[in-house]
Design goal:
Structural class: mainly alpha
Shape: elongated
Strand content: under 5%
Helix content: over 70%
Order of helices and strands: HHHH
Length: 132
């Protein structure tokens, strides 16, 4: 009589004998097409990476901070607007706290004039770009 261990082993070995499935044949034309598509994709990725590296090299540190040539002027004008309005508010606050309103208020007006000039540049440039 067989032991329980031998019965379990024979059950596992019997279950392990499954019929093999033959490998699927892939037509060589589909394989060649897939390889050429993959190679074309790889070449396109390399070309895009090269263009990106060239752009980073052309921008330099100024371009990395303010953007490309087409956006740098607008970004600098925006920084000028923020600094101008911020300085004007700060100077009016100093004029209020010190009581010397004539000097500090006139300085605040100069700062406000610079900020509004930059604001006029941004909106003037936007209308010129829209007419193209």
């Amino acid at each position: 009589m067989a032991s329980e261990r031998d019965e379990a082993l024979s059950a596992v070995v019997a279950a392990d004998k499954t019929p093999e499935v033959p490998p699927v044949e892939i037509p060589s034309s589909n394989l060649d097409s897939a390889l050429s598509t993959a190679e074309e994709t790889r070449r396109l990725e390399l070309a895009n990476q090269h263009a990106l590296n060239r752009l980073h090299a052309e921008l330099g540190w100024f371009g990395k901070v303010f953007g490309s040539e087409s956006h740098a002027a607008i970004v600098i004008a925006f920084v000028m607007i923020v600094l101008g309005f911020g300085t004007a508010i700060g100077l009016w606050f100093v004029a209020y706290r010190t009581g010397k309103t004539d000097f500090w208020a006139s300085e605040a007006h100069l700062s406000l004039a610079a900020a509004t000039s930059a604001l006029g540049y941004v909106f003037g440039r936007g209308s010129k770009d829209g007419n193209k």
